[in-house]
Amino acid sequence: MSGRDEKDVNSENAGREVNAKGDIKKRIVVNLITGLIVSAALFAYETSSEDYSYTIIHRLCDASFVAAVLLMGIGGLKFCRNGGTFDIMSFGIKSVVDVTYPWLFHHPRENHGEKFVDYKERKHGERRGASDLLISGAVFLAAAIVFLIIWMVTEG
Protein backbone atom coordinates (compact mmCIF):
# COMPACT_ATOMS: atom_id res chain seq x y z
CA MET A 1 0.00 0.00 0.00
CA SER A 2 1.47 3.37 -0.94
CA GLY A 3 1.70 6.35 1.41
CA ARG A 4 -1.08 8.10 -0.43
CA ASP A 5 -3.44 5.13 -0.02
CA GLU A 6 -2.76 5.02 3.72
CA LYS A 7 -3.57 8.75 4.02
CA ASP A 8 -6.85 8.21 2.16
CA VAL A 9 -7.76 5.32 4.46
CA ASN A 10 -6.81 7.31 7.56
CA SER A 11 -8.82 10.34 6.48
CA GLU A 12 -11.75 8.07 5.64
CA ASN A 13 -11.58 6.47 9.11
CA ALA A 14 -11.34 9.90 10.75
CA GLY A 15 -14.45 10.97 8.86
CA ARG A 16 -16.28 7.87 10.07
CA GLU A 17 -15.30 8.62 13.67
CA VAL A 18 -16.69 12.16 13.40
CA ASN A 19 -19.89 10.81 11.82
CA ALA A 20 -20.16 8.16 14.55
CA LYS A 21 -19.89 10.81 17.28
CA GLY A 22 -22.50 12.98 15.58
CA ASP A 23 -24.64 9.91 15.02
CA ILE A 24 -24.53 8.89 18.70
CA LYS A 25 -25.55 12.41 19.77
CA LYS A 26 -28.49 12.26 17.39
CA ARG A 27 -29.50 8.82 18.70
CA ILE A 28 -29.24 10.04 22.31
CA VAL A 29 -31.55 12.97 21.51
CA VAL A 30 -34.02 10.64 19.78
CA ASN A 31 -33.93 8.27 22.77
CA LEU A 32 -34.42 11.15 25.21
CA ILE A 33 -37.46 12.33 23.22
CA THR A 34 -38.81 8.77 23.20
CA GLY A 35 -38.29 8.56 26.96
CA LEU A 36 -40.06 11.89 27.43
CA ILE A 37 -43.03 10.62 25.42
CA VAL A 38 -43.19 7.44 27.52
CA SER A 39 -42.88 9.45 30.74
CA ALA A 40 -45.51 11.96 29.66
CA ALA A 41 -47.92 9.19 28.67
CA LEU A 42 -47.49 7.40 31.99
CA PHE A 43 -47.75 10.64 33.93
CA ALA A 44 -50.95 11.55 32.07
CA TYR A 45 -52.35 8.08 32.72
CA GLU A 46 -51.53 8.26 36.43
CA THR A 47 -52.94 11.78 36.67
CA SER A 48 -56.21 10.76 35.01
CA SER A 49 -56.71 7.83 37.37
CA GLU A 50 -59.10 8.18 40.27
CA ASP A 51 -56.43 7.46 42.88
CA TYR A 52 -55.53 10.85 44.35
CA SER A 53 -53.25 9.53 47.08
CA TYR A 54 -50.08 10.05 45.01
CA THR A 55 -48.43 13.45 44.79
CA ILE A 56 -47.21 15.00 41.56
CA ILE A 57 -43.58 14.32 42.52
CA HIS A 58 -44.38 10.66 43.17
CA ARG A 59 -46.00 10.38 39.73
CA LEU A 60 -43.01 12.08 38.09
CA CYS A 61 -40.71 9.64 39.86
CA ASP A 62 -42.74 6.67 38.62
CA ALA A 63 -42.88 7.99 35.06
CA SER A 64 -39.13 8.69 34.94
CA PHE A 65 -38.30 5.30 36.41
CA VAL A 66 -40.42 3.42 33.85
CA ALA A 67 -38.74 5.29 30.98
CA ALA A 68 -35.32 4.52 32.52
CA VAL A 69 -36.11 0.81 32.84
CA LEU A 70 -37.37 0.61 29.26
CA LEU A 71 -34.40 2.43 27.75
CA MET A 72 -31.78 0.68 29.86
CA GLY A 73 -33.45 -2.71 29.39
CA ILE A 74 -33.45 -2.35 25.62
CA GLY A 75 -29.87 -1.05 25.82
CA GLY A 76 -28.85 -4.08 27.89
CA LEU A 77 -30.39 -6.46 25.38
CA LYS A 78 -28.68 -4.60 22.55
CA PHE A 79 -25.38 -4.80 24.44
CA CYS A 80 -25.83 -8.57 24.80
CA ARG A 81 -26.73 -8.88 21.12
CA ASN A 82 -23.64 -6.90 20.14
CA GLY A 83 -21.54 -9.35 22.11
CA GLY A 84 -22.92 -12.18 19.99
CA THR A 85 -25.26 -13.71 22.56
CA PHE A 86 -28.09 -14.29 20.12
CA ASP A 87 -26.03 -14.97 16.98
CA ILE A 88 -26.41 -18.75 16.92
CA MET A 89 -30.17 -18.52 17.46
CA SER A 90 -30.69 -15.92 14.73
CA PHE A 91 -28.39 -17.82 12.34
CA GLY A 92 -30.32 -21.04 12.97
CA ILE A 93 -33.70 -19.41 12.38
CA LYS A 94 -32.39 -17.67 9.24
CA SER A 95 -31.00 -20.94 7.92
CA VAL A 96 -34.25 -22.84 8.55
CA VAL A 97 -36.31 -20.12 6.87
CA ASP A 98 -33.88 -19.98 3.91
CA VAL A 99 -34.10 -23.73 3.41
CA THR A 100 -37.83 -24.07 4.06
CA TYR A 101 -39.02 -20.97 2.21
CA PRO A 102 -36.30 -19.96 -0.27
CA TRP A 103 -38.70 -17.67 -2.12
CA LEU A 104 -39.66 -15.70 1.02
CA PHE A 105 -36.55 -13.53 1.38
CA HIS A 106 -34.22 -12.49 -1.40
CA HIS A 107 -30.80 -12.41 0.20
CA PRO A 108 -27.83 -11.13 -1.74
CA ARG A 109 -26.08 -13.93 -3.58
CA GLU A 110 -22.94 -13.67 -1.44
CA ASN A 111 -24.94 -14.34 1.76
CA HIS A 112 -26.62 -17.49 0.46
CA GLY A 113 -25.28 -20.59 2.18
CA GLU A 114 -22.81 -18.68 4.33
CA LYS A 115 -21.14 -20.34 7.29
CA PHE A 116 -21.80 -19.30 10.89
CA VAL A 117 -18.36 -17.71 11.26
CA ASP A 118 -18.95 -15.54 8.19
CA TYR A 119 -22.45 -14.66 9.43
CA LYS A 120 -21.09 -13.65 12.84
CA GLU A 121 -18.35 -11.47 11.32
CA ARG A 122 -20.80 -9.80 8.94
CA LYS A 123 -23.28 -9.08 11.72
CA HIS A 124 -20.54 -7.76 14.00
CA GLY A 125 -19.57 -5.24 11.32
CA GLU A 126 -23.17 -4.06 10.90
CA ARG A 127 -23.93 -3.44 14.58
CA ARG A 128 -23.97 -0.13 16.39
CA GLY A 129 -23.22 0.29 20.07
CA ALA A 130 -25.77 0.35 22.86
CA SER A 131 -24.29 3.31 24.70
CA ASP A 132 -26.93 5.75 23.41
CA LEU A 133 -29.74 3.77 25.04
CA LEU A 134 -27.79 3.23 28.25
CA ILE A 135 -26.89 6.93 28.53
CA SER A 136 -30.47 8.03 27.85
CA GLY A 137 -31.78 5.52 30.38
CA ALA A 138 -29.25 6.73 32.95
CA VAL A 139 -30.53 10.31 32.48
CA PHE A 140 -34.09 9.19 33.27
CA LEU A 141 -32.84 7.07 36.19
CA ALA A 142 -31.04 10.12 37.61
CA ALA A 143 -34.23 12.16 37.21
CA ALA A 144 -36.21 9.42 38.98
CA ILE A 145 -33.71 9.41 41.86
CA VAL A 146 -33.92 13.21 42.15
CA PHE A 147 -37.74 13.05 42.20
CA LEU A 148 -37.58 10.26 44.78
CA ILE A 149 -35.30 12.30 47.05
CA ILE A 150 -37.57 15.34 46.71
CA TRP A 151 -40.60 13.17 47.46
CA MET A 152 -38.92 11.63 50.54
CA VAL A 153 -37.86 15.03 51.86
CA THR A 154 -41.26 16.68 51.36
CA GLU A 155 -43.32 13.73 52.61
CA GLY A 156 -41.01 12.74 55.47
Structural account:
- By secondary structure, the chain is an all-alpha fold.
- The protein contains five helices and no strands.
- The chain has helices at 3-48, 56-82, 87-100, 116-126, 131-155.
- Helix 1 packs antiparallel against helix 2 (56-82), helix 1 (3-48) packs parallel to helix 5 and helix 2 runs antiparallel to helix 5 (131-155).
Quick description:
The chain is mostly helical and 156 residues long.
Number of strands: 0
Helix content range of the residues, please?
A: over 70%
Unreliable spans are 9-15
* Biggest β-sheet description: none
Distance between the termini: 70 Å
Rounded average pLDDT: 82
- The best one-word shape is elongated
Tally the helices: what do you get? 5
Radius of gyration over C-alpha positions, nearest whole angstrom: 23 Å
Essential attributes:
156 residues; mainly alpha; 5 helices
How does the SSE layout of this entry go?
Blueprint: H1 3-48, H2 56-82, H3 87-100, H4 116-126, H5 131-155
